[in-house]
Amino acid sequence: VKKIAVLTSGGDSQGMNAAVRAVVRSGLYHGLEVFAVQRGYSGLINDDIREMDLRSVGDIIQRGGTILQTARCKEFVTPEGQQLAADNLRKRGIDGLVVIGGDGSYQGANKLSKLGIKTMGLPGTIDNDIPFTDFTIGFDTAVSIVVDAINKIRDTMSSHERSSIVEVMGRHCGDIALYAGLASGAETILVPEVPYDLDEIANRMTENFSQGKRHSIIIVAEGVGKGENISAEIMKRNGIEPRVTVLGHIQRGGTPTHNDRILASSLGDFAVRRLIEGDSGKGCGIVKGELVATDIDKVVNTKKQFNMELYELSKRLSQ
Ligand code: F6P
């Protein structure tokens, strides 16, 4: 490849900017011409593409959000939209594309790859729901934000001897809840991957308080249900009303952690090097510290394995 482009798509995540910077700077370092597409796939369709230089990605490694902006684009779902996107790249002679995003973005990258554009996907989502990578870009920062919030909630819960429900993001994947729950010592972690028993949770809460516990924290992934509804169900069972905090989009903003910046930098550079070597149609990731590239087809058709070991550990430690 001689000319490549980069775009961010789907829900943003902290570290996307660091990944854009890495793709642009690594591409330029290797003598490529590098372009950026604004607003994800809709920018491809609308031909919103500009050439980048070293300075166009200055001062962004520390910023949340994405300077390229992002969108969920309906038109791109159609074969006509995909063809138009591929044509817009081709007319500029761009033959390589790095897509930074989550599951839906990978599906788009897969389509473009089948239309002959050499495409690499980078896992940019706070959800950590992409298989064939241990971590996605943004996940570490999101977990840190949730842990920080739970620390604060715990202070006031202890003073008042209260129970709290913290609702976090994750529609299909409970990783934010799992990692933040384990790291913050939550008593109960509710995730879409594991069934739960409200009677057992309500009884344990009553027992814990009667044995001198001063607070009780339940972390709920949004895919399980609304924190408010779970609170009402617990109240019905044991008379204790857990106070609900919905963290929402706070989890998706702010400066990325050093882990996310390093992951984004390594993966961005890796994707460019793979494109130069002629690789295409791959999702990039990190598995046990190694950078890996897996067929996007396989990535989009595989469900990420839930880490039951960590889940069991959190149960053992949160008595
Ligand atoms: O996929 C990332 C994510 O933040 C999910 O955790 C969440 O369910 C969803 O996006 C929220 O999307 P939106 O910001 O479009 O409401």
What's the quick description here?
With about 325 residues, the protein is α/β, with parallel strands linked by helices. It has helices spanning about 15-30, 40-45, 80-90, 105-115, 140-160, 175-185, 200-210, 225-240, 260-275, 295-300, 310-315; strands at about 5-10, 35, 50, 95-100, 120-125, 165-170, 190, 215-220, 245, 280-285, 290-295.
Report the sheet with the most strands, covering strand number, pairing sense and barrel closure: 7 strands, mixed
How far apart the termini lie comes to 56 Å
Shape: elongated
Bound ligands: 6-O-phosphono-beta-D-fructofuranose
Catalytic activity: beta-D-fructose 6-phosphate + ATP = beta-D-fructose 1,6-bisphosphate + ADP + H(+)
Binding site for substrate: 125-127, 162, 169-171, 222, 243, 249-252
Main location: cytoplasm
Subunit structure: Homotetramer.
